[in-house]
Amino acid sequence: MRKYGSASAWFFLITICITIYSCKHDIPEATTGDVCFESEILPIFQSSCAKSGCHNQGSAAEGYILDSYQNIMNTGDNDGIVPFNADKSEIIESILENDPDKQMPPPGSPGLTTEQINRLIAWVNEGAPNTVGCNSSVCDTTTFLYSANVKPIIDTYCTGCHSGNTPSAGINVCTHSGLAAIAADGSLLGSINHTGSFSAMPQNSAQLDLCSRTVIAKWVQAGALNN
Ligand code: HEC
After folding, report:
1. How far apart are CA 154 and CA 173, in angstroms?
2. In 10 A of CB 97, how many CB atoms?
3. pLDDT at 118
4. For ligand 1, which residues put their CB under 6 angstroms from it?
5. How many Å lie between the centroid of ligand 1 and the Cα of residue 199?
6. Chain-wide mean pLDDT for the chain?
7. Which residue has the higher pLDDT, 76 or 88?
């Protein structure tokens, strides 16, 4: 009886050790909030997915509403985003899909860049946290080059609507020349600063942070060069 007791105690101890050890391995390493939901992930959903006729409140195609953190996490059958598991997340699966009938965004719409896809996957594998107020560290108003500073902001907040086969308002901001055209007629700064009679952009989303607007304004004032 006594012998049995100590054997089961050992068994218990070993089980605990294995459990602790395996739990340790289950915790992903990148929980440092490396990806910023508010400034990197939400704008991708808002400009590429939460459009009229697609996944905004009114349309909710396939039951998916992708306009806010709450909706992104609770949409579909709750498996749109599976925290810590990009492989099991339906939304990630649809973005990586090769079948044109299932692919998101659908063929003809502006696709996501490889960088955007990588950030989405990293965010899910970090646990898909609702990280906010974390954009100031990545934005610096002292450099305002087109390719290094301006284009990444435009790609994040604007190209989802303003590129592809049928860009909104006929404005394509994918290329330098397209963006330079709206820089020249004043509508770029008017729309992002919410001044004049221009429509507020990005449409149906929060205004761009001050740092991003400053970078774009400095680039426009310096001649909107392709630098
Ligand atoms: C969710 C889709 C969507 C996003 C994201 C979006 N736009 Fe627009 N944009 C539109 C639509 C639709 C129109 C035309 C209707 C209107 O003017 O409101 C438009 C119009 C414009 C206009 C013309 C405005 C005017 O009054 O002449 C400019 C300039 C513009 N967008 C720039 C931008 C910029 C820059 C961004 C990114 C910071 C952006 N848009 C993000 C959908 C979008």
Report:
1. 7
2. 12
3. 94
4. 47, 51, 157-158, 160-162, 168-169, 171, 182, 187-188, 191-192, 198-199, 201-204, 208
5. 7
6. 85
7. 88
